[in-house]
Amino acid sequence: MTLNRSSSVGYLTNLAGRLLVRELERHLSPVGLSPAHMPVLLALEDGSALTQKALAERAAVEQATMTATLTRMERDGLVIRRPNPEDGRSTLVALTPLALGKIPAVADAATTINALVLEQLTPDERSQFFTLIKRIIAVLEAQDGASRA
C-alpha cells in the first residue's frame, strides 16, 4: 500500500494547519504573542475568569497543554490566577490588561489570514468549504467521543 499525499485528508489538513499556524506566528510575534496563546485569548476575551478545567474545555485544549500554556502566559504577564470564591481548592484564570490590549492585534491577524486564504475561493466555494470541513469535524468528534466512552 502506497500513501498518496495529494489525496490524504489527514496529510493535506495537517499541512494546511501547519502553514496557517506559521502565518499566524509571523503576524503575532511582533506583539509578543504566539499561536499557542490564541485558545486562551479567545476563551477569555470577554473579560471572564474561569477555572483551568473550564478554560481547557472552552478552548478545546488538553489539560496538560493548558497547564503549560498558562504557566508561560503567567510568566509573560498575560494571565493572572486568583482564588476561586466559590471553591477554595481552585483558582480562576483571567487575562491581564496587557493581554486584553493585544486582542485587537489577534483579531487583525486572524482577519488578514482568513482574507488571504478565502479570497482564493469563489463565494460558492467558501460556502462549500465551510460545510465540508464542519462535516469532517463532526465525524471526527463523534469518533473521538465514541472512543472515550
Explain what the structure shows.
The protein has 149 residues and is mostly helical. It has a single domain (5-118), classed as Winged helix-like DNA-binding domain superfamily/Winged helix DNA-binding domain (Arc Repressor Mutant, subunit A, Orthogonal Bundle), CATH 1.10.10.10. It contains six helices and three strands. It has helices at residues 9-28, 38-44, 52-59, 63-75, 97-118, 123-148; strands spanning 50-51, 79-83, 91-95. A hairpin with a 7-residue loop joins strand 2 (79-83) and strand 3. It is globular and about 55 Å long.
Q: Which class in CATH terms?
A: Mainly Alpha
Determine the oligomeric state from the structure: single chain
The H-and-E topology, N to C, reads as HHEHHEEHH
Briefly note the CATH topology name.
Arc Repressor Mutant, subunit A
CATH architecture: Orthogonal Bundle
Tally the helices. 6
Number of domains: 1
Count the E strands.
3
Residue runs with pLDDT of under 50 for 5 or more positions: none
Distance between the termini: 32 Å
Strand content bin: 5-15%
CATH superfamily: Winged helix-like DNA-binding domain superfamily/Winged helix DNA-binding domain
Q: How much is the average pLDDT? A: 94
- Going by helix content, strand content and strand pairing, the class is mainly alpha
The backbone outline, from C-alpha atoms, is globular
Summarize the main sheet: 3 strands, antiparallel
Radius of gyration: 18 Å
Q: Which strand order spans the largest sheet, edge to edge or round the barrel?
A: 1-3-2
Helix content: 55-70%
